[in-house]
Amino acid sequence: MKKKLFVVTLCLCMVLTLLAGCSKEDKGSVYWLNFKPESDEVLHQIADMYKEETGVEVKVVTAASGTYSQTLTSEMDKSAPPTLFVIGNSAGVKTWDDYALDLKDTAIAKELSTDAYNLYDDSGKLVSIGYCYECYGIIVNPDLLKQAGYELADINNFATLKAAAEDIHARAGELGFDAFTSNDMDSSSSWRYTGHMINLDYYYEEKAAGKTWTECPDTITGAYVDNFRQLYDLCVNNSTVARGDLATGGHDAQNEFKTGKAVFYVQGSWEYSAVAESVPNATMIPYYCGVEGEENAGLNCGTENCWAVNAKASEADQKATLDFMYWCVTDPEASRLLVDSFGVMPYKQAAESTNGFLKASEEYSAKGCYVMDWATNYQPNVDDYRAAFVSALNQYNADPSDANWEAVRTAIVDGWANQAQLAKG
Amino acid sequence: MRGTGRRAMMRRWSWLFLGPVVAAFIIGFIWPFIQGIWLSFCKFNIISDAKFDGIGNYLKAFKDQSFMHAFWYTALFAVTSLVLINVLAFTVAYLLTQGIRGSNIFRTVFFMPNLIGGIVLGYIWSMIFDGILSHWGTSILLETRYGFWGLIILMLWQQVGYMMIIYIAGLQAVPEDMLESAKIDGASRMQTLFKVTIPNVMPSITICVFLSLTNGFKLFDQNLALNGGGQPFIQNADGSVVKTTEMLALNIYSTFYGTNSASRGTAQAKAVIFFILVAGLGLAQLAFTRKKEVQQ
Q: How high does pLDDT run on average in chain A?
């Protein structure tokens, strides 16, 4: 008798559980695998705000710096994978295309103020859309520059930048500050050169050929690699740390800039919130490298921050994610918080940017200067390509001979061809 | 009668005690291991989407120059570290069992480096080496031999203390009467060491050689942190790259994540080859040294 009662109760419980599932409307949930560690705190705040407003759960997980690819690979395998993740370059499109929902004609895509930062696959599917864009170049402390006897307006090409930097470096002892901050080549800093500064070669190659890359070219010519060398040499020869001591890193370039130890700092717009408090009038100038007509150069603008929605998530989760994205760029309070963290969001209703470096970029554009796009996003097998580039630069820093420079050129030009071939599989 | 009943009851309930361990072993080892072998024959981006691809991954792995380089480099490293770690660990253990003052403090001090994680050690030692090498305008990342010996020094510093503890346990188990009779028979210190002590500590030698050999082959964290991902690199004329200080485990890792997703299966094939190699070497070594053990 007891046994029968137990079985009946158990059956009733099971049926009730099923019915409970039916009665509740499935709102779906959002799982955002975040790419930017510096925005982690704000994103959690945003997630809480959204849950309070709509009742929809938003989970934010941030991958540790430099490990996004590894984290995404393992998270995608779980039973509840990310519904919102980042596909930031052409290599990412190749790898994750099958997992990306076509965002064409979605409400969020209609809010975009520009198509410039979107990524499409070969079939024309809108794989990911930019949620912020960034600029990089050389950050300048105008006060220190003035103290050394130069005006920001005087620097508009490589010759003027070189004259100022070499003079400041020569008088560093007397002035109390140097020209450039340290230029470490360890993994936390080398991307400033092997990922960003080298973009000047790629961009000018594009410009000379008269067309913008839309996919990774099989080869590059390296026509502007010597211009890269000029600027790179200028940075490492006139800095707070000798070029021979850069290989294993351990120096804090950001702190050197904040504490007034150097005038120039090779970095990007995401540094604004970190340096603005110490150097409120900090601004940014382009990579002047001795290319003809560079007086009209602007900053390097682009993004690797592009949202993709998981095509394999449930329909409810996809809808919840798209709604959440729309809310992020249209809600005044949310977009204010996000813009303050990201710098700028290219959406019609998003809050206005307060980032001084992005303002500098707009000023260059307003003057009619050309924007250098991020051709660097097409680097094939990016980690391996950059690792070989770093190794060659380390040898060159230890002995800056022409022979060692040729090895750097090989890493840049032949390394590209080789990795592009490997990337095809 | 009571004894038999208890035994029957124990047999009846044994699954309760064995079950969790067996389940954990299957979930944590057997199943991933089988899945790993299956994936080595597949093409995949994430493992739940794997598609069978034949033996292509193995062919690619064997053709990969960087893998072959990593193999020989790892073998050289494993043999060098095996010899040096064991000679030093045994010497230190021998000295510390001779009743010198403060030997407990020395044991603790020598063992402590083993408690620090490999990545942390790698970064700390890279700064130490570069602090020294910068006087000559060079760095550990610029010369393969600096990278090699740097890693050997790091491993000695980390592992000697651990192996020393095992050797000390072995040395303390050598029967006093045997040592005493050797002394009475007029054996010299060296004769006692080689004819009495070492044959008696063969079980410790077996385990220490096994551990240092497999540790040498499996080394990853220290290699990643100290050698900057395998620097310096050699650029071949075709633009391909050989990472001169990259060991096998790091090579597998960078194949999986560094190159494009098409090479994930290749990385998995490399991992299976790596397993067969380490297991084979380890078992061969165990069989060889066990033969030398003596019955007390």
A: 90
pTM: 0.81
Task: Report, as ranges of residue numbers, the positions in chain A whose pLDDT lies below 70.
Answer: 1-25, 425
Q: A56 and A68: one domain?
A: yes
Per CB-CB distance under 8 Å, the chain B contacts of A395 are 142, 232
ipTM of the modeled complex: 0.74
CA separation, residue A176 to residues A123, A148, A168, A171, B34 (Å): 57, 10, 10, 8, 63
Domain containing A385: what range? 135-302+361-423
Phi, psi at residue A338, to the nearest 5°?
-70, -40
What pLDDT score was predicted for residue A91? 80
Element (H, E) at B242: strand B241-243
pLDDT at B285 over 90: no
Say how far apart CA A156 and CA A286 lie, in whole Å. 9
| 3-state DSSP assignment of residue A165 | helix
DSSP state letter for A260 = T
Which CATH architecture fits B57-291? Orthogonal Bundle (1.10)
Q: Say which CATH number the domain at A260 has.
A: 3.40.190.10
User: Per CB distance under 8 Å, which residues of B are interface residues toward A?
Assistant: 45-48, 126-127, 130, 134, 137-142, 228-233, 235, 237-241, 243, 254, 257-263
In a domain, A390, yes or no: yes
Residue written as tokens 């705190």? A41
pLDDT in tens, B4-37: 788 888 888 888 889 999 999 999 999 999 999 9
SS3 call for B139: coil
Measured distance CA(B26)–CA(B4) in Å, rounded:
32
- Which residue, among B35, B60, B130, B259, would best test binding to A if mutated, counting the most A CBs under 10 Å from its CB? B259
Name the E strands within B41-181.
42-43, 51-52
The answer for A367, left when phi > 0, alpha when psi is -120 to 50, beta otherwise, is alpha
Residues A156 and A75 in one domain: no
Stretch B198-221: mean pLDDT, rounded? 91
- Give the model's confidence band at B295: pLDDT under 50 very low, under 70 low, under 90 confident, else very high: low
pLDDT, residue B254, reads 87
Phi and psi, residue A282, nearest 5°: -60, 140
Q: How many domains does chain A have?
A: 2
Across the interface, of A77, A247, A414, the residue whose CB is closest to B47 is A77
Pairing of strands B233-235, B241-243: antiparallel
* A64 or B61, greater pLDDT: B61
Q: Counting one residue from A and one from B, how many pairs have CB atoms under 8 Å apart?
A: 112
Instruction: Look at residue B109 in the predicted model and tell me its pLDDT.
Output: 87
- Residue A305 near residue A130 (C-beta atoms within 8 A): yes
Please state, in angstroms and as integers, the Cα–Cα distance from residue B271 to each residue in A53, B32, B67, B210, following that order. Answer: 49, 12, 11, 20
A214 CB contacts (<8 Å, ≥6 apart)? Answer: none
